[in-house]
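User: two proteins, same treatment. go.

Assistant:
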Amino acid sequence: MKRNAQYHKNVIILGGGACGLLAGITAGRTGASVAILEHNARVGKKILATGNGRCNLTNLALDPAAYHCGNAEVLTQVLGRFSVEDTLNFFHEIGVLTTEKNGWVYPVSNQATTVLDALRFELNHLHNVTVITDYTAERIEKRDNGFIVHGAVTEKGTLPETYRGDTLIVAVGGLASPKSGSDGSAYPLIKSLGHRFRSQVPGLTGLRCAEDYFKSIAGVRAQGRVTLWVDDTSVAQEQGEIQFTNSGISGIPVFQICRTASYGVKEKAKVRVTLDLFPEKERDWLKDELTRRIQRFGSRTVEELLCGFLHKKLIFALCKLSGLQPSSSVLRADEASWNRFLDYMKALPATIIESQGFENAQVTAGGILLEDVRAKDLSSIEVEGLYFAGEVLDIDGPCGGYNLQWAWSSGYVTGKAAAERSLHDSRS
């Protein structure tokens, strides 16, 4: 085959991530000829990082209301056509046994490689599906009878650079984790087809804070409650294990509020958090406990008195903020300092500067406006035969398998619709 020759398929899929692979398998099973064009040297690279390398496939208690999206009708229709149960059945069918913990579903192997390998093996046995890696799309041309994707293949040889398709599925991901291939390089191509984007910010990542005390508590993990404030209004609250870093805070409760904080920063609002380090106890209880300790251990130092209250690094940091000297006698500490210490335990303040960026984010918030796609199949209202799937759309969810479920559902719906449209037109 000569290079630069046009190579015809019923369905072309841009992107070989989770939703692109599911779309390819679905379209192939429907009977369409398919080409998956992947930017990386191998498909599914981002899958390997999900669930801390364990791949949190989905969630048994998936709540559509937990997603962030501009059009709930789009979300509910797509999730309704390929549900959590459909996801579990699909992966069981291709050989992946699953287990769950608190509703979060993982492969029994606890290895994300299991999920990717099973998807690849299934693709390998669909002889009507071709996977091209190291492919960079440079231009999309819309024709009356379909699409022509012009690009370049890094690998030298006889691979075609130009593909013709009756239908086109764009599953290129977002901006999160660019090292996995989600680098936004295909966005200009999407915009050239007349599609609009909601501004994008990092989601599911840590937050950087202005205060310098974080350097002294880096590496500490503590159960707590995070309250997010935007322009002095409480807008979100999450509880769980908070991880302290050199530059701020991380951990699942921080991930859950990250998108809201990121949009606040982007809009130049005043964004801050307060951290409750004793979410299960009221301040009065803590005050009574502190008073009891002072009465019993009054001859000890402040450090000795507070031993067992918190992680030692946190005790030292809160003492410094409160004006307490850990090595000083308890009897020398004044009531105002103890009150400040109690206040910090229940509402440690931090000013949010920014998130930890797309390079550390698990998902992208924002994307193609849902007003521009049809709810039934994610087809473009602007361009017939064009479909969008996965993270490229303005839909994102919290931790716990939500974003992969959206990838599977949108991949299935678009793969089925694009294949059926192409096959129907070819028979007409």
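Protein 2:
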Amino acid sequence: DDRRAELRAIAKAVGAPFVDDPGNADDAFDRTRFRRLLEANPWLDVPAIALAAAHAADADQALRACADMLWDDVAKIEDDQVSLDPSDLPDEVRRRLATNAIDRVRHAHHLPAGGWRVDGLDRLLAALLSGGTGTIAGVQARAVGDRWHFRLAPPRRSH
């Protein structure tokens, strides 16, 4: 790889040590498989991919800031429950506000922070947008009028 050879030449020129990591040749690692994919497909423009990733990170940071700024305007916290008004907001901002509401309810009930999987979040949001209810990560959410309400889910009934 040209970049690796260039990096080695720079390290050698300045007398910096370098080590060949055996893991870099082991296809058990994602990084190795991705490197081979990039090397085998010259049409994949690595600098352009890196730039796109940087732009995506900037967009993520901007959306996080937007949701944080909106929180005080759209959310209401009462005891250990959270309600919010997601009206007229883009889907991704709604997703972030709902995630924040779920995390706050979990925190209020001393459930472990983070770690819950967000793969069911889109189903929950679809249910809320259609006026329904749903449960995720031990938190029950329901739509009432223009507001979404989040509270600890009731215990499951066993049969």
